[in-house]
Every structure is written in C-alpha cells, then in structure tokens.
C-alpha cells in the first residue's frame, strides 16, 4: 500500500457544514453552523477475562521470518495509525505497554514516552532505553535498518500485516494476540469487534452514497494529498456508506493534490484531519488549495474533520468510528 509518512491521532468528528444541509451562499452557510459527532474518547475496552500470556511462543512475522517471544512484560507496539497499541490494550495488556508512537493517543497511553522521531521513523536509541521484551510493528514504521538494529540487540520484533481495511482487523488482532501468548483472548476480541462492526454497519443510512474525498493536508510542511484505493481512508469512507471520490477516478494510495484531480473527483463531501485543517487555516484556507473551491463540496463548504487518531486506526474501536463518521457525512442541518 502506498501512503505518506504522516502522524494520525483522534477523538471527534466535526461536520462543519453537513451534507444536504445548505445551498451555496453565505446566508445559507450562516444558518447551518457546525455540528459535532462524538467519536471514541476513552481507552479501548479490554476483553473480559484476558488471561495471562503463555510463553514462549514462536510466530510467523509478516516479513516471513519465525520469531520467538519469551517475555511479554514490556511491550512496545508501534505503527502509522496507532492500531497495534490499541489492540494490545483491548487484549487486557495495556499496563505492559512501555512506549508509544505519535498516533497512540488514548488517555492511558498519553504519558508513555515517544519512540518515534520525525514522522513515524523509529528512534533506535529511544526504543533501547525502554528495554522492551517484544516489539510489535508493521511496515508503516521504520526505517528497516532500525528494526534490524533492534533484532541485533536481541529484541524479538514481530511484524503484523499492514493492510488497512475493515476485514483485516480480525487477522491483526489474532496476530498480535498470538505473539503475546494470549490466543484465546485474541479470538474473543476479534469476535467482539466483528459483532460491533456489523452492528454499526446495520445503522449506516442507506440510499444516498455521497461522494467523499479524503485530503491529507499539512500546511506547515507543504504536504497536500488526496486518498484513493488502498489508502485506508477509502475503507472507512465506504464503511460509512459513502463513495470514495479518489478511488472512483482511479487513484490508488495517496497522490498529490491537483486542481484537475479535485475537479475530476467532484466530491460532495471533503474529509480531513482536524490537525491538518487547522494547519491550512480552517475551511477558508482549505478552499484555497488546488481545485477544492471548484468542487461541489467546496462550493457548499461541506467539510468533515476528524481529530487525528481513530479515523484511520483499524483497531478495536473501529465500530464507534464508523458510526460517528456515517453520522457526520449523512447528517443534514435541522
């Protein structure tokens, strides 16, 4: 999967001008105003009866190597979207986490030391200082040389498949649970999450499927991208009962934002991260980016922003995020 090296973190979804709410024009805009939909705000809910890790275990890492884990008392779980640490916590092992990446922001993890330097590059020195007994990661973090350095230091490094889709959540949970010696807890957590996602999907509004474009923007770094097939954002947009505008015009992964691309995508809704929206000066600044003002979403200021974190975190709380996103995308002003 092609994706940028960006940080994600999260809590709420804000529909700055909900779909179907307003006609173009300042008067209509002033009548609608912002509407906020709460998304996951607390810690991931641990599974009942998590059990004690039974170790040692030997598991197959996603890079094809066999890794033996002998100790799960000091766990470091890091990836681009923060989902691995969330899964560890939901398995009932959150008190064993010793560090975090910038995307791991649930309350009980915020005080943990950061081990990522710029973006999602791991700092070998920061990791080694924490003396983890096992490291769980995927290919979204690196560089590979740092992971090799950790292995040479004798730390078991288990890579988890990095597919960012709703269907991949269950396999990710079972892979993490297997590496930590709690396979039964993993199966029960995967079943619980699957049931929650199915329930959330059943509540997604049917009928109209608004065309929605996810823009990853960081004004301070001059990064402006649109998501397409396989970016992760496409899976959440589809789960929320919308059509991913980038995928619809044949984009894959993340691609540079261009006027031609935005006009061709013609989204009815634009989805962005809260931090990214702030970095470009809010909705007014977003409309100055290439092609945005010329789209139906831009003309009607239909922008949904999601605090960086849960939107692209395919973990144990995905059902809550699907419900919140669907609510924001489909809601109309009262």
Structure, explained:
There is one protein chain. The chain is an alpha/beta fold. Strands 1, 2, 8, 9, 10, 11, 12 and 13 form an 8-stranded mixed beta sheet that branches. Helix 4 links the parallel strand 6 and strand 7. Helix content is 34%, strand content 16%. The longest helix has 20 residues. The N terminus is likely disordered. The protein has 13 helices and 13 strands. Belongs to the bacterial solute-binding protein 8 family. Keywords: Signal. This is Hemin ABC transporter substrate-binding protein. It holds the Pfam family Peripla_BP_2.
Broad structural category: alpha/beta
Morphology: globular
Cα end-to-end separation: 40 Å
Give the rounded overall mean pLDDT.
Answer: 86
Number of strands: 13
Q: Helix and strand succession?
A: EHEEEEHHEHEHHEEHEHEHEHHHEH
CA-based gyration radius:
20 Å
Low-pLDDT residue spans: 1-37
- Binned, the helix content reads 25-40%
The biggest sheet amounts to: 8 strands, mixed
Family: Belongs to the bacterial solute-binding protein 8 family.
InterPro entries: ABC_Transporter_SBP, ABC_transptr_periplasmic_BD
Keywords: Signal
Signal peptide: 1-23
Task: Output the keywords.
about 15% strand, three-stranded parallel β-sheet, about 35% helix, about 325 residues
Give the gist of this structure.
Keywords: Signal. The protein is of the alpha/beta class and 334 residues long.
